[in-house]
Structure formats: structure tokens, C-alpha cells
Amino acid sequence: MVTLNEDRWRRYQIRHDTEYCYAYAVNSARHRAHLVPSDHADQHVAGYSIDINQPLSESREGRDFFGNAYRDFSINMPHRLLDVRVSMIVDVRAPRWPASETPWAGESLARRVFEPGDQAANDFALMCAPFLTDSPMIPTLSAVGAWARDRISDDARPLHDQLLKITRAIHEEFIFDPEATAVGTPLREVFSNRRGVCQDFAQIMISGLRCLGIPARYVSGYILTHPPPGKPRLVGADATHAWVEAWCPDHGWLGLDPTNGKAVSDEFVILARGRDYADVIPLRGVVIGGGEHTLDVSVTMLPEEEVEASGQGNAKLRQTVNPAGNDVTSDHGGHTTRGTGKNQVAGRQGEEVR
Amino acid sequence: MPAHVKESLTAPSTLLAGYIGRFPVDGRFDELCAADGAARAHWDPVLELLGRMQATEIETRLAGAQQHIRDEGITYTIYADPQGRDRPWALDELPLVLPGEEWERLSYGLAQRARLLNQILADIYGAQSLLHKGIIPPEVVYGAGGWLPAAFGTRAPGDIFLHSYAADLLRSPDGQWWVVGDRTQAPSGAGYALENRLIMSRAFPELLTQMPVASLNGFFTALRESLAFHAPSDGESPRIVVLTPGPLNETYYEHSLLARYLGFPLVEGGDLVVRDGYVWLKTIHGLQRIHAILRRQDDAYCDPLELRSDSALGIAGLTDCARRGNVLIANALGAGVVESAALQGFLPAACRALLGEELMLPSVATWWCGERAAMDYVRSHMDDLVIKSVHGIGHFQPIFGQDLNAAQREELLARIESTPDSFVAQEWVRLSQAPVLNRRPGNLKLEARSVGVRAFAVASAQGYQVMPGGLTRVESHRDARVVSMQRGGASKDTWVLQASDNEELVFPGDEAGATAPIVHTGVPSRVAENLFWMGRYTERAEGMARLLRLTLSERLHHARRHGAEALHELVWRYGLVELPKGAAGASQIPLEQLIRCATHPRHNQGLAATLDQLGRVAFSLRDRLSHDHWRAMNRLVNDQALTENSTLGPTLVWLDRAVSGLAALSGFALDAMNRDTGWRFLSLGRRLERLVLLAAALNVATGHLNQHGESDQRSQSLDWLLDLTDSSGSFRGRSTGMATWQAIRDIVLLDETHPRSLRFQVDGVQQALQRLGRDTGNSLVGLEQTGILLTGWSLGGFPELAMQQSAFAQLEQEIGILSDLLVSRYFSVSEAGMAV
Asked: For B138, how many CA atoms within 13 A lie in the half-sphere containing its CB?
């Protein structure tokens, strides 16, 4: 199970389309897209474009407090359809697994003695304090804390191994059920029903870790799915994914995917990190007019070798970042299956994501 | 006896005798009585006046003040109160008197504290040197509910994050003042302090003229000038607005008061829009850039795009404008972070680090449980402590350690120890007491109540300026351990006596009110819409009152005449009652139902419901109405006749009162309101609504004529139509016989000089539409199309159309279309955004 970093980079092509369809014309809209990947230690962005099917009156890129890039745009033309198409080529490698063998007996990492002048402790607090406390969508629920502690109480292995135990426990004890929750379902309810999607599982795990005094942050991104044996990959059937990063002393942030019960590997691409989902919502907006709307999200994550084999690659993307024009070719054909909108964050295909 | 205690008050009235000498008790500080029971010297003028007065005179003055509060509609909403929005403001008319020297010391401390908190905010959202150096633990900032990551990097104009600051002060038994809470987001109360002063100056004018009570006006002048000075207006005259969450907010009354007093438009989130990094006001003239926003809503609700997406009150993109320094927001978004009680223990060190000064005005001793030493102290001193959450009382109601038994104490300690960063403990300070008037009729006496003072400071060009006074808050029972208006307490005016040898406390300012140059904005679209509906509801209420009055009296006196039948049909057509199924005709409306229409508060579409709607619309326009206008309105919509079980007699009296009251409102609309473009909407609303009733009445009248034949018309009494349109006098002047259709038509339809004639109103609507188009430069395509029919009426179409019932039915429809077009042309832009 333990993944070693062999410095082998894998390249992915990702397409992420978001389509809002309104009952009436929207007169004006302002959006924020946390759909701009950044370079990290184990991730390099080789190509990127975002295309929007409406004339933009404003468009600006920015960087938030947590270091994520985002794009703000606004539309002041009446429209009933908003189609945001993001394409990217990203190289990733498997993160190093912690080497430390120091046993961990469940002690909190949050400092409990504040000493003015203790610079090391203070630097740690400066980095981790936002991820140790209640955040807008993740209350530190003591019941979740107790649950997490129960999962690790019987041994004293290193912290990272115990974190993996909690990761697997969520995978084993919770049921993936896109119908059970919506974006705003309170964590308490998710926890008592033991059902939800990756967003819920990540936030449950974060709540538990913060209760134990372990800094934990929310990651939004993509995961490579594996079609059932013998079946072809369905284009557009993936979804955005969400997982957790927890802090390990002597190592740093460690990526863990409770939805799949495993550590983050070279099959994960990071979009943005924050305290919880609200900090990194892939696409949010405020519109005037419009009435009821439907939201369709379609994601395809292809390994490079499949791009070559299937001929589904996008030549334009290889050459330029942010190309002019809004036509990213329509090679989805008739077999595109789309998410339902209610769950922007849910894997739907294959064995990997339940 | 200490020198400051005056001996001459040996024979105070019984009122004073019941208090002086009996307090203080329980070791608490009493604001009136010194430790030996004698009155403190600075209260002398107040006590002397009260001592001279008869109890009945005091009672008269108190009743006058309370009447004033009701008439003015001064309200404060207690969220949990079933009475809801209209709870009258609670004021105890005995002021809290404080000596000038004492207040001066306090002012220095308050100003320093405001300066300190401002610099801490600039640091938290900027360089973060306090966090890097560990002078404030990062956990304290990031764990505070008010910390907004989205505010990081904000460029506050003039480096001022904190324009308006309030501190909740309390006084310990030794007479020392302490800060128990800092209010830095959108502090409320300064406007209520001003209102209290206005009420007191009516109740006890002789005291306020004799005693050197410091004026509050300079404080508001400073606020206005400071906002105008710092607004990033790029050379334009600064345009400033007051942002309110709306009439449902607990302190909406204060928002409208502030807007009126400062001369800034009162706007809601839906009135503002962000374009190209700037904030704009939606007006009927188009978008106008706004340079500064005095906000009265909480951080999280200000921007549904970056902050709480479920906020329907915010302005999408506002945070971005603030980060770019393109708009001044007072206070800056994210300013709530320094309200955290966890910060208080670190203020002395931050004060030394940032200002190089010692903190003058201390906080109530506070322990942040994230420190081990603090946690140990908390464990061993629970009895003396109040435990609070750093996330605010929404997360956790404060707990008094002394209330807990051993098991509860262990449970709480375990909870704190599981997430100690989230808790603070504060020393429990026994609040000081002050006398309040117990207003039981015939048994007026003084009683002691716990008090606290909310003090205010504003940023000015010369630094922070402290209001010489404040909002004194009184608990509803004697032994209360906290004071809070939300818990049903009352308030007092706070009188700071200026020391004659100290000029510093005399703030500049015009006693008559605000006078600094005011920057005008166009009429916000929402205001125009509310004015339009105020016009419609006023006229509709008047039409209903007239119609019901006429119908009831016609029915009483001439039950079998045709007029009664026609009026009943009109009552039905005008939407006042629904026809019962299977009823033979409109004349079947039972008397009780007519009375309900006129008086029952919950009769749908009745007079009471219309007045209620009028009151709501007027409430949201408070900043545009004069005091007298508002009082007349308030008295009418809260008339005691509006009850569930009224009878015929009182109903008829009420309808007379309603008609004259509504006529008075029309007078205010004509004489006491600025005739700006907004006023034209009010006027249009009135005219359209009057046309609605006229068209319906003429529809009914011609229907009856047609049904019974022209020859029968002499027997048809159309007196009702003359009465309804106030045309009887005009008719008697011209004719002595029965009201014939011919004669009535000349007056009710064609008389250009008669304000209740169809032609007069049609011409008026035409002219108003033209002026509106000219004023706003807004094309009237569509409106002109509807105007065609109205033009047809005004251009000699009357004689042909006059007998056609269908023409009146069509007129009714056309008015509806015209109204809808106005709404979509001028008002729909004020629609609020929706998060997707």
C-alpha cells in the first residue's frame, strides 16, 4: 500500500465543463471559478485554458489567502446558458510517504502552551491555525472526534499510519450515496446517517482530525477513475473530487482520500485547498434574473497514453494557454453522460470511487 | 461625609427618599449614591428638579415621552419576541449622569483603544507582524469567528479599517471602568443615543438647558466628514450611502435615523451593484458610483460571492472592490475579528508593540484557555468566571461558573480541555447600579437596576473622537449579571457634564443638526418603487374608507334604493370582499362583513390590511419622511379602531377619522416632501390608484344605467357616485334636481378643474409620464403605447366613450398594464442577486 516516490511523472489531460441552464434570461452574472490549478511539489501545470460561451464584461485572475489561483468573471448580457469549459494538461507524481517511525500516542499537535518568543511553535501556528478550528462548513463535532479516536486508540504506530486507518475507516463505514446529501447538508446529519459523497467524507474526516488536534485541510481536484474490466472509459463521466490533507510533523501535508480509503497517489490532480468546501467551490456565482436553473457538470480525466490512443486529444490545448475563441471542439459525441448538478463532487464510474 | 456629597438634600421628596440612603447594597457601585448612602454631587440638579416636582407632574412628563416614542414609531426588534417588529423603544427617563473629568479620562482610553484595534486590523489583514512575532497567537485570530480570509490584502482608504467603534463598559464595585466587549463590525446604538437625547430634551427641557450636558452632534459631524474625507472618490464629490439589511433588522429604526441625520441615502444590498471593480447605486437615472458605504450589516452577509452565499442581503463582488481600495467600507470587511474575547488578554502587549504606549482602558480580566497557565487558573477559579466561546454567543451561551454543580463543572472543563482554543474565561464583575423610574401609576418610585454603558468613537482627521455620552443599558431586573437590549432591557440617556475649565470636551457642531455639505445621489430604484406604492396604498386606503363609509350609511338609511345595490357591487368589484358562492347579487354582503372590511386587522385586502402595507412601505422610507408626516402616518396605521370585534357605531366614527387622516397624509405629500423625481412616482401611484376606483365606479354606474334603461334614469339615484367622488357640492352648485347621468358626466368625467374627475387624473398621468421621461432620460417606449388609450380619453373621446361600460372595463385593464410597465421600466433593476 505504501507508495514510494519514484520520481515518475504522469501526464493527464482534464476537461471540466460546467453548464448552467436558466429558465429565464439572466440579466447579469458575476462568477468566481476556483478552477485554476497551480504548480506544487508533486504537480506541474503544462497547459491550461478556460473558455466561456458568453461575452465577458470583466475577467480577472487572482490568488486567495490560501494560495489558490482563481478567475473572476462577469457577464452583463442577458443569457440563458452559461457554459464554462476548462481544459488542462497536468503532470503529477506520487507524493513521498513519510519515513518517520516515531510512534504517536494520540497527542494533539496543536500547541497548548502559548509562550511569547517560541518562534518555532509560532511559525507552526501561523501555518496550521486556520486548519485546526471550526470553519464555516466544518464544525469540530466532538462526536466525530470521539469516533476518530476510537479508530486509532488501540495502537501506537506512527501518525501517518494511523491517519491512514481513519481514512480507511470512513471508506468502510460510510456508504457512498449521491442521493443522501446536498451541498449544504449539515455535517452532523452526514455523520449520523453515515452516507454521502466525497465532499461529505472529506469534511467528516477533517472535523475528526481537528478534534484530535491534527491540522487538516480540504482539497478539491480530480481523481483518475478506472472503468470496469473490459469496458471503455466514458467521456465526461468523471466528476470533481475532494479529499483531505493532514499535517504530519517531520513530513508536512499528507494527502488522504477517505472516499476511496487510500493515500493520495499519482492519480490525483489538485485544483485548490482551503478550510472546507466553501473556500474552494469550483464555480460559484450570483445572478440577477434567471429563475430556476439546472447545473450540469462533466469531467473527463485521461492519462496521456489514452489521449494518444483514442485520438481524443486537443491539439489546440497543447500549444497555447488561454487560446482566443470559445470553441474547444465538440468531440464528446453522443455518449456524454453528465452529472446531475446536485452533486458537483461525486465520482460515478468504476470501482475506484465508490 | 465626603466633600462631594451634598448635605442640603435632607428633605427630598418621597420619590428620592425611597432610594437615597438605602443604596448601595451588596457591595456594588451605585451611580447615584456614594458608599455612605448620600447622593453624589453631580446629580444635584437632577435631584433638585425631581424633588420640586409633584409625582403627578413627573407622571405626565413620562407619559408624554412614551407617547412620543409611540408616535415617532421608535422601535427596536427583539428577535424572539412574538410582538416582532413593532416593539417600542424602551427608555428610562432618568439619565445616567457622569462628571466631565471622569469621562475625559475614559475618552482618552477609548480613543487609544480604537486606535489600537484599527492598527491590529491593518496588521491582521496585511503584514501580520503581530502574528509572526507571536505577540498575538495566530490561533486567537484564525480561531475567531470574525476572521475573514477574503479580507486579506484589503487596502483600506487612509489605512482606516475601524471608522466606527463601540465599547461596552461596566463599572466594578471600586468605581473603576472596564471594557467587557469591543464592537467593531457595525456597532449599533449611536443613533439610539441620539434619539434618547431628543426624547429627553422634550421630557426635561429645563435640565438640559441648565446643566452643562455635552452635545452629541459633533460626533455625527465627525463621522460624516471623516467618511467624505477618506472616500476614494478620484476627484469626484464623494457619494456615500448607509447600507441596511432592511426593515426586518433589529435596529432598522436606527439605520433610517442615521441616514436622515447624516444626509446619506439609505440603501439595501439589492440597490448596489459591482462593475469593473467599483460599486454603483442603481437609480432611476442609471448607475452612479458610490465611494463610501457606512454599513449596518454583518461581515458575512455583505458579499454572497465571496462570503456567505446564502445571503440575500449582500453585493456580489464587494469584497473584491474593498481589496482593491476602490470603495471605503465603514467598517472594513473582516473588522469583526477583533471583537473576539480571546484577543482581550493580548491587547496590553499589542499596545506596547504597535503604539509604544501602555493600554489605558483595560478589559475585564480575560483568560484565553489556549494558554496552559490560563487553563489552570480557570480550573481553580470557576466560581468567579464567566465562560464564553471565542466564536460568539451563537455557538455557545455564556455560562457562569457559580451556577454549576460539581458534575456540570467537570463536564464543562472536559469540554473546554478538548478544544481549549475555542474558549475564554472572563472575570465576573458585579455590575454597578443606577436608579430607574418604576412607573406603576400612583406609586411612582425609584428602583435600582444593573447598568452598563456603550460608548462610541469615530475616526476623524484628528484621530479618534469619542462621543461625550453614550447608550446606557439597563437590565430588566435588579440582580442581572449581564446587560443586553436583546434580553429585554431598557436604555437611558447618558449625560456627561462638561467641566467649565475644560474646552476639549466641547465638540464643534451645530445644535440644530447636521449641516456639512451633502453629496447627492440619484433616487435609488427601490426608493422610487416604494414611493410609487406608498402613493398607491395611501390612495387605495382613502378610496376604501370612502367607499365603506358611503356603503354603510347608504345601507342604513336607504336600504332599498338602487344606490345601495350599486355600492355593494363596487365593494365587490374593488376587491374588498369576495362574493359568497351562490349569492344572488352583491347586495347580499352582510353588514358584519362590511365592518370587518373596515376594521379587522386580518381581513384580506380590507382597509386594515391596506394600511398595514402602507405602514410597511412608509417604514422603509422613513429617512425621506418628515417627523410630522411620519407621526400622522404612524397614528393612522396604528389606530385603536383596528380591532377584531368592532361594531357599527365605532366603525363609522373610525371611517370619518380615516378619511380625514388620509387627507392629511396627502397634504404632507404635497407640502412636506421634496418634489424630486422620486416624488413623481408617489404622485403617479396616487393618480393611478384613484383612476382604478373611478373606472370601477363608472363601470358599475354605466352597467346599472344600461341594465335599467335610459328612461329609468330619473329614478336611478346616482347620488352615491357624487358622494364617492366628493362631487356633491359641485353638483348642487350647478343643478337643483336629481342627479342625471348627463349632469354627473359633466362633473365626474369631464371637469378639468375637479381633482376627482376622470379627465383631471388622465391629464395628470399623461403629464407625469412626460416629466418622468424628461427627468430620467429613460425612454418611454411601451409607456407611450399604453398612453394611447389614455390620450384617446383626454382628446375628446369622452362623450363617445362615456356610456360604454366596456370602455371603463378596458380603462381598468390599461391602468394595470401601465403600472406593470412602470415597475419593469424603473424598478426591476433593484432585484437582488441569487447565488447559483
From this structure: 24
Model pTM score: 0.85
Per-residue pLDDT tens digits for B354-378: 999 999 999 999 999 888 788 889 9
Q: What is the pLDDT of residue A64?
A: 96
Interface check A20 vs B, CB under 8 A: yes
pLDDT at B454: 96
A64 touches chain B (CB under 8 A): yes
Q: Using a CB–CB cutoff of 8 Å, tell me whether A125 touches chain B.
A: yes
DSSP A112-151: ----TT-HHHHHHHHHHGGGSS-BTTB---HHHHHHHHHH
Are B132 and A28 a contacting pair at CB < 8 A? no
Tell me if the bond preceding B187 is cis, omega within 30° of 0.
Answer: no
B247-297 pLDDT, tens digit per residue, is 888 888 899 889 988 989 999 998 999 999 999 999 888 889 999 999 999
Write out residues 264-323 of A within 8 Å (CB-CB) of B.
275, 278-279, 281, 284-290, 293, 295
- Using a CB-CB distance cutoff of 8 angstroms, which residues of chain A are in contact with residue B269? none
Cross-strand bridge partners of residue A257? A262
A133 → closest Cβ in B134, B153, B422: B422
Q: Which residues of A touch B133 (CB under 8 A)?
A: 122
Q: What is the CATH number of domain B366-427?
A: 3.30.1490.270
d(CA A210, CA A212): 5
For chain A positions 87-106, those within 8 Å of chain B (CB to CB) are: none
A149 and chain B in contact, CB less than 8 A: no
Count of CB atoms situated within 10 Å of the CB of B486: 13
- pLDDT tens, B523-570? 888 899 999 999 999 999 999 999 999 998 887 776 556 677 888 888
Do the Cβ atoms of A12 and A303 come closer than 8 Å? yes
In this model, does residue B515 exceed pLDDT 60? Answer: no
DSSP string over A61-109:
EEE-TTS-EEEEEEE-S-EEEEEEEEEEEEEE-PPPPP----B--S---
Q: For position B830, what pLDDT does the model report?
A: 56
Q: Minimal Cα–Cα distance from B452 to chain A, Å?
A: 31
pLDDT at B110: 97
- In a 13 Å sphere around the CA of A150, the CA atoms on its Cβ side amount to 8
Minimal-distance CA residue of chain A relative to B135: A116
- Per residue in B732-751, pLDDT (tens digit) is 777 666 667 777 888 888 88
pLDDT at A70: 97
Residues in A touching B153 (Cβ below 8 Å) = 65
Q: How many CA atoms lie within 13 A of B94 on its CB side?
A: 26
Note whether A32 contacts B137, CB cutoff 8 Å.
no
- What residues 171-190 of chain A have any CB closer than 8 A to a CB of chain B? 184
CA angle, residues A34, A37, A43, in degrees to nearest 5: 150
Q: Is there a contact between A285 and B305 if contact means CB atoms under 8 Å apart?
A: yes
- Chain B residues in contact with A278 by the CB 8 A cut-off are 309
| B305: chain A residues, CB-CB within 8 Å | 30-32, 284-286
Question: Nearest residue of A to residue B142 by CA position?
Answer: A130
d(CA B585, CA B190): 59
Which structural domains are found in chain A, ordered by start?
10-93+281-335 (2.60.40.2250), 119-279 (3.10.620.30)
**Reported ipTM:** 0.86
CATH 3.30.1490.270 domain range(s) in chain B: 366-427
Over residues B317-354, the pLDDT tens digits come to 999 999 999 999 999 999 999 999 999 999 999 999 99
Q: How far out from the chain centre does Cα B683 lie?
A: 24
Q: With an 8 Å Cβ cutoff, is A116 touching chain B?
A: yes
